Amino acid sequence: xxxxxxxxxxxxxGIDGSGKxxxxxxxxxxxxxxxxxxxxxxxxxFMRVGSLIRLHASRIRNVPQYYMALLFAADRVEHYxxxxxxxxxxxxxxxxxxxxxxxxxxxxxxxxDAEWVRTINNRxxxxxxxxxxxxxxxxxLSRKKVSGIFEDASILTKIRRAYLRLVEERExxxxxxxxxxxxxxxxxxxxxxxxxxxxxx
Length: 201
Ligand code: TYD
What we know:
Elements: E1 9-13, H1 20-33, E2 38-42, H2 48-59, H3 65-89, E3 93-97, H4 100-111, H5 114-120, E4 129-134, H6 137-143, H7 153-168, E5 173-176, H8 181-196
Parallel strand pairs: 1-3, 1-4, 2-3, 4-5
Bound molecules: thymidine-5'-diphosphate.
Thymidine-5'-diphosphate (TYD) is lined by residues 16, 21, 43-44, 57, 72, 98, 102-103, 106-107, 148, 150.
């Protein structure tokens, strides 16, 4: 078999309204412009379990987070096995809008049980680089027509705290996302260039 160099998996993290979808799609476009193989994907997925989550997440308020955590973990196993791993093996850099740290921050933070969330997610490898876009809940809420079940400032504060713990544990790279998009993107590109040892500018 042809010896293809494995791609790099970059995930984007942040509370709802942090701008991660805009920033991550911009990074994806930059990779493409520079001629790299790159694949963009999101969680929850649109596969079987992901679709079930979308139905719940958008419609039902008091779903226990233990139940949600198991669904997110199941969706992620399918996502990794059927999509991410295959693309990485073919040499694509994979950018995912959310991945395992979303579960650690959201469900782990809300349940106060990050360890259990880590355990149920231990069937998938961590990303090569996780970029966390940090923003205050107030700013996030003012930016966005935040919809869904996590739109409350006190809930977002808990989730942000859990993300900041991941920063302290050096599992995610923090980027100040309260700045204008151009500055955030520039910072993200610097981190990726350094980590991958490539030129994206
Ligand atoms: P997302 O589609 O990123 O929402 P948006 O585009 O509106 O920011 O994610 C949907 C919701 O699912 C979001 O509120 C975060 C939540 N979520 C978790 O709670 N745990 C997880 O593991 C993942 C992947 C998402």
